[in-house]
Amino acid sequence: MPSRRAGWRCLLAASAAVLFTTACGVSAPGTQSAPPVSRAADAAAGELPSWNDTAARKAIVEFVRKVTTAGGPDFVPPPARIATFDHDGTLWAEQPIYTQLAFALDRVKALAPQHPEWKRLQPFKGVLEGDLKAVLGGGEKALAELLAVTHTGNTTVEFESIVREWVASARHPQTKRLYTEMVYQPMIELLAYLRANGFKTFIVSGGGVDFMRPWTEQVYGVPPEQVIGSRAKVQYGMKDGMPVLMRLPAVDFVDDKAGKPIGIHQAIGRRPIAAFGNSDGDFEMLEWTTTGAGARLGLIVHHTDAEREWAYDRSSHIGTLARGLDEASARGWIVADMKRDWKVVYPPEKR
Amino acid sequence: MPSRRAGWRCLLAASAAVLFTTACGVSAPGTQSAPPVSRAADAAAGELPSWNDTAARKAIVEFVRKVTTAGGPDFVPPPARIATFDHDGTLWAEQPIYTQLAFALDRVKALAPQHPEWKRLQPFKGVLEGDLKAVLGGGEKALAELLAVTHTGNTTVEFESIVREWVASARHPQTKRLYTEMVYQPMIELLAYLRANGFKTFIVSGGGVDFMRPWTEQVYGVPPEQVIGSRAKVQYGMKDGMPVLMRLPAVDFVDDKAGKPIGIHQAIGRRPIAAFGNSDGDFEMLEWTTTGAGARLGLIVHHTDAEREWAYDRSSHIGTLARGLDEASARGWIVADMKRDWKVVYPPEKR
What we know:
The structure is a homodimer.
Chain A: H1 4-20, H2 39-44, H3 55-68, E1 82-85, H4 99-111, H5 124-128, H6 132-137, H7 139-151, H8 156-169, H9 185-196, E2 200-208, H10 209-220, E3 227-239, E4 242-253, H11 259-267, E5 274-277, H12 283-290, E6 297-304, E7 311-312, H13 323-331, E8 334-337, H14 338-341
Helix pairs in contact in A: 1-7, 4-7, 8-10, 11-12
């Protein structure tokens, strides 16, 4: 497990890479939206309608058939049907920058009127002027300051309300869609398909757990108590005579890489039988899941579609995928090719 | 939030108190078992059959009626019907020593053949000879050593199997029943009653989460992912070529007192609407739960029955209850009197 300090640095380094290099090693994104497939049509098209009938879909359906066949050699009773999904790049888009980072930058702008000094003070000045190189000039210290100011210093109830409000209106810089519409329709169907087959679905993300929980139930059907992520320390205390949980400017847990099996153990207490990721940050979760006894499913979403989404893997700073690609075959993990295996990427636009 | 070191000390101090004073301030326990009420008869007797028709039962039923009445002013949609239960002293007996401590002492005896030096080495010598005063002579350092040796240094899978085995055969020193039969029948009915009314039930205990999870689903109907507790640090690594989570001799989180709302936030991410405890270690959980908006239920199990269980509160080292008793009325918390409000304490003995 990385030390808390190392974990914090790791998060910051990733953020720095994201801010500093605009989609380095990433093909140009398409802005076209998904064809307007109606939800009724989806249902009629049967299981996983947005998946082409290729090897990835077949392997998923075969795995589910095996573990749900009562009396069969691979049967798994429903309580043990635990499936874990990475978030950024697996359930929703993570380009050109992590959505949570977009939130942090917007939050600086929203808070600026209360902080006139930010006009002269880096890293805030850089954010307000859109000069990200200046922001990054401050290094880790500046980024830690940005994250602390935008994510902590308030109560859990206040932060939840801030996130809800932002998510309801913020739009992706390129597609102009709501971020909650930048989710992957085939993965939403996969979540529902697994639940319909007795699975309990969890999100296990390197992102902040309190940034996801306010809206995952509505968007993915995953309730807050089934969302695992990185977290800030919180402190119980009183404010205006009422108990509150204050969000402190300190990292409590980094749910990434080897942190994912740990986060899974902390929150779930049993080993998943299926895991879904897209980057080497998910390697240990996939490894932990698929080396258990009995039938197991590991799947990597491979970003191959520069037309409908983005194409990136080994050389990308966001969602780096190298070891996963190298070892998937030997480990029996499915690599889902977004371009080849998905009929649509995003859900139909809401009108 | 207590510091990690303070939390560890607090756990140790409690353990020390438990080891050192045999049920100080505690009335003599009865050893008679519950009357053999059949489960079929229970079902026929309707909701909460083991609760007398007193104010406590009425308040529970009225609360559930309010939050489940669609269109009513206090209606709560099912996903928000979160109920949290303390464990020791709320769902099962905690006298004359915490069951987890009995496990630790038994574990020293089980490991002794591999450690011949323990015959001469405190605190192990004291445990093996039943000389608990000698054990306690070593102070915190000795207790930390005991806990580390008995709870860590193995993988999560190994520890789970050790707990399963112990729980299947270890018996309470006075009643000679399995510890998993030293559970409170009225509370088991309450868990089931809430679930039947759309609640999701969680255990939120100061005890070790990995000591509870192997058996809570079978005994309480609460799956591992709905059990929150104190935890050791774990580390992801390889052992004999396979990934493991190693249990390290270091405390990661103490889920007691102000730690309970924090543990609830970490694991559930929303505020319970009902909470159940028995000691001042549950005060903050009850406070956090019942100061939220809308209908709320807080209930304290008061150990008043020296005949069928134990009678203790203010002056007991285990399950100290003072502030809770003082403030319950003003805060609208129900105090369930075990002697007055419960028809039976334990489930019928299995034959």
